[in-house]
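Suppose a colleague, Dr. K., hands you the sequence of a protein chain of 240 amino acids and asks what its three-dimensional shape might be. Before reaching for any lab equipment, you can write down a predicted structure in C-alpha cell form. Begin with the sequence itself:
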Amino acid sequence: MSKSLAPNAMSGRVFRPAAERFHSQLDWLDSWHSFSFSSHYDPAWLGFGPLRVINDDTIAAGRGFGMHPHSDMEIITVLVEGQLHHRDSLGHAEVLRAGEVQCMSAGSGVRHSEVNGGSVPCRLLQIWIEPSSTGIAPAYEQKPYPIGKAWTALLDPLRADGAMAIHRPVRLWRAQPEAGDKLGLAIAAGSQGWIQLINGSGLADGQALQRGDGLGFGAGTLEAFRAGSSGADLLLFELG
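The predicted structure, expressed as C-alpha cells, is then:
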C-alpha cells in the first residue's frame, strides 16, 4: 500500500489548491487529479488515508474511456453534469445522469467502459478508495440522490438514510448550501476527513475554499463550513 499524505502537525490540516492539482488534457478530456495518478507522480501527494484518487473529469460529447481493467479498488463516480454510459464485464449497461452516484467494487477484477453518449460535455468526479480486503467479488450499484442545503448521505457502512456501502468503513456526504449557510463538519473520533469543493466557494474555519480545492483534516480539528456568496456544492468524506 502507498503512503498517505500526512496532515500539517500544527493545524491538523492538508490544503490542496485546485490550481496545484495534476492536469491531463486531451482533445476530448480535461482532467484534474487531486492525487498522483497515471503518469503524474509526486510522493507528497499519494493520497489521504484510504482515499487514493479524486479526478475531476470533463468528457466531450460522444467520447470517453474504452474497455479497461481494474482490480482491488472501490470506485465511486459522482455525475455532476450531463450523462455517462457505463458498460462492464459483469453485464451491466447503464446510463449515469447528473445527480446520480455509481459504486463499483473492482475486487478480483472487472473491465468497464465510460463514454459520454450525450450531446453536450459531461462532468464527473471519480473517486478511488482502497478496500479493507482484496480479492472480493466485483459488484456494481447506482442510485440518484436529490441534493439540498443539508448533508445527504451517499455512502455509509450501514446504508443509513438510503446511502450505498463500499468495502471500507467510509462515509461520504454531499450538500449544496446557499450563500451564508453553515454546515457542521463533525466526523467520528479516530477518523480523517476530506472536503472537496465541486462548485462555488466557502470558508472552513477560516480556510478559504474555491471550486476544485480539497482540504484534509483530523477529527475535531474543523468545526464548520460556511458557503460563500454564490453558494457551494461540496463533498465531505469520513475516512475510517
